[in-house]
Design goal:
The structure is a homodimer of 205-residue chains. With 205 residues, the first copy, chain A, is of the alpha/beta class. Chain A has helices spanning 8-26, 34-41, 45-53, 67-77, 93-100, 137-144, 155-167, 194-202; strands spanning 31-32, 59-60, 64-66, 84-89, 109-116, 125-126, 129-130, 132-133, 148-151, 172-175, 188-191.
Chain lengths: 205, 205
């Protein structure tokens, strides 16, 4: 499919389309159009058709997209037609909230374990998980073959823990610490920093 | 300055530059270069120079950028040279985590109040805040002149609450509910949906 050449910006929209399609499917809808999907996600119909057509011919002129079929295709493209095990690093407020979050499984992810270095937290529960000793993090992540981690440690520790995650074989990090991480080129990082997103909006106010 | 014409993608990078510059300032650094800043945030030096030069001549050839001066300029551009009061809607795990989050104030934001519709939660504490009755949300937000809200309610309630926030005069919504919101054109929404960001990364694994 030549997926290597598809722009990042296109890829970044696919999870948003998938999310909207999954909502439609939950409502019992069977087909949709690029117009309808576009209005839902705030993208033009032409852009949606262009984005999706890069991966194949998934829609039919006049009848639109079969929602379940398009969901299956997008899940395959995004590699979430499987479940990715995840580790949470840091059992503070955010780490605990993520440990209890119910929105991962139907989107291709599952929390497997949570780590913290604080002796007072180790052994406590966070959601359904027993908080594990961060000293054993590298070994446990490597043994479990975990490739995806959510990082919720304080800023001062974030880079050091990131280096350990890379060493443990993690390839994708969702970073809640408000700091840019330095990683090798084959490691992916996404940032979940509320203040950054808020500042992006205040510019326009 | 003709700021109307500056692309969204440029604006989206400014909070990231600002965050990195604030870390440098905390470390006691006084000047930086587009190379150094670029390495820190994963953007080319040329892109940084181009982005920043759209707002004026803030750097000097050979001596680079004065960090505190550039911070002040970026804060002004992003309108966070003031403090924006915020409301949190939804006192679940995520709402409570945000109520206790310490990373807002030095970046231009302050939580003022938190609402929930659950009678069992109203009157409880979330961080330093007493959880308020969501039935009074529109009136209280309007009275307080709050323009920024963080939305952490369940998916099924997110659009209805959004409509109320718009009615109350809110102009910027940081949405933690994994659903696209429909808002008037002058309302800004940013999405904080971990599964979407995770799916964006798994494509590349």
């Amino acid at each position: 499919m030549g997926t290597e050449k598809i722009p990042d910006i296109t890829i970044s929209r696919l999870p948003i389309y998938l999310r909207a399609l999954q909502r439609m499917a939950e409502k019992g809808l069977q087909t949709t159009s690029s117009q309808e999907l576009g209005e839902l996600v705030g993208v033009t119909a032409a852009q949606i058709r262009k984005d999706i057509s890069q991966f194949g011919e998934f829609g039919k002129q006049g009848t639109g997209y079969n929602i379940l079929f398009l969901i299956a295709q997008l899940r395959e493209i995004l590699k979430v037609n499987r479940i990715w095990d995840m580790a949470i690093i840091g059992a503070g407020d955010m780490g605990r909230a993520l440990a209890r979050y119910q929105g991962f499984l139907d989107r291709g992810f599952r929390v497997l374990t949570i780590f913290d270095k604080d002796a007072e937290k180790i052994g406590d529960k966070a959601g359904d998980f027993i908080i594990q000793d961060a000293a054993r993090m590298v070994k446990k992540i490597r043994q479990a073959g975990i490739k995806v981690a959510m990082l919720t440690v304080p800023v001062a520790e974030a880079q050091e823990v990131t280096d350990q995650l890379v060493q443990a074989g993690v390839k994708a990090i969702l970073n809640y610490a408000p700091i840019n991480l330095t990683v090798p080129p084959d490691i992916h990082v996404q940032y979940m920093d509320p203040a950054t997103h808020l500042q992006w909006m205040t510019y326009y106010l």
